[in-house]
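Trying the structure run again after the queue cleared.
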Amino acid sequence: MAERSTAAVDVADNSGDDPLTAQAGKATTDGAAESQDTAEKTSPDTNSEPKGDEPAPAAPELHSGHKLAKRYRLEECITRLDGFSSWRAVDEKLRRAVGVHLLPADHPRARSVLAAARSAALLGDPRFVMVLDAVEENDLVYVVHEWLPDATELTALLAVAPMEPHEAYQLVDQLSQAMTAAHREGLAHLKLTPSAVLRTSSGQYRIRGLAVNAALRGITADRPQRTDTEAIGALLYAALTQRWPYENDAYGLSGLPKGVGLLPPDQVRAGVHRGLSELAMRALVNDGATASRQEPPCTTPDELAKAVGAMPRIRRPEPTFTNPPEYQRTTYQQGTYGRPATRTGPVAGQTMAVPLAPLESRTGKVLKWGVAALLIAALGLGSWQIADKLLSRDNDSTPTQTTPKERDDDEKVKAPDKPLSIKHATEFAPSGSGIQEDEVPNAVDGASHTSWVTPQYRGYPNFGNLDNRKQGSGIIVDLGKVRDISGLKIDMYRGGQKAEVLAAGEDATEPTSLSDFSQRLTGLKTVGETLETTLDEPTRTRYVLIRIAELPPEGSSSKTYRGGISEIQLLGR
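Done. Tokens:
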């Protein structure tokens, strides 16, 4: 049941009970699904195809254990609705779970479902649940797709609590980029609801039912890009407020109060991130909402993705640690070391040890006097050595003097490293033209939530393979005077950038070209969200270059690239 609830096919999602939560083996009825659809509102541009006077053919009467193509064994019916059914199945050839949609070959939507499934399969984008097969045989049409046992529906996540700003930011960022890639290939979703979005255990969001869900339900739209953009805006709104942004309750979420219109998320729930609240309103703007700062509405996923990219990056919250466990004494501390043992008498069954008799014989007396003599001799020798040392120190009239220069050098070596103040910062523009010169101060302002961010580059990670960007870009830091640099910490705008840190010579004056930076502080390598190092020997310089040679993709298979630097900190004396 746990596996089914996290990855079942979302073809009958609606504003009422999710079919994935139904009892195993039970399917929702047509009448219940139709009544639930009346509460659903995804976009004003979504229209259903007329079904005609003739009802759709009944869903094929199949049962658990039935095999398709002698390969896919049906295990559990998840949904039976409007002439089609959805199943959890097992691919016996590859020994893995899969999902299957089934409908009669004479179903009025069979041709469109096949076409949609085959188009979605050609996309090959890992941000979407992949279509594995689309077949027509034996008067049946079936579509086989991935099953993700480790994923959780957005519906389940929102049922617990609203999302933190960082998680909501990741949601809208990943969904907008994924749908941008889909629309670039001519594919729309048109049924992008909370149950169509899955969050994997690694924190990535994946979308299921691209094109197929709409084809199964006969949904079309005059402006498909606007429809999907508004759907993403509704998901962001729900993530921020745990409310559905319309008057009707939907997907287990309460709707907005009737008659008040579409309120901004930060007016629905206290503590909502202002930038994300405005972003949700811009995506929903054509439904009567207005952005508080009057920015233009986002009418396509690409415009929404650019608006997300233009926001200051929202960092992951710092982990919170609970109180440490109560201190426990070790065995050593719990023992009787250093304390007199408490004795209450002999234990039954034990024999008391008899103490040895004192040395009262002639031999014993000799031994006692011998030990006493040795102790007296040792005390006398020790006293003589102490007196000799004291006299030698008093008679020494030439004590070693420490020269001021030696004392200054010692203090300099022992002085701890500290952050160096930055006098000025400029953009590294070897061709003479910058890209985001006005944002450079964001990388040296001491605030980690502001950043210097590059524009989007398409096709190539090396800044679009443009001639004026062959040497990349970055930031040149001016310390005001020559300093000893012993370490550095650079917070990158996002991980995956190929970068290096170089320093100019001591006598350099306003260096601008790559050849002016002759001292290497780090190698050229792909770095994570932080580039941090401690130098073996301090480097004397006034100017430091943080150069980015290649940018990371904005998605797992995106053809657009973007990077940047959030904060620069140099350590030294």
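Residues 418-572 form a domain with the Jelly Rolls fold (CATH 2.60.120.260). Worth checking whether this holds up in the mutant runs.
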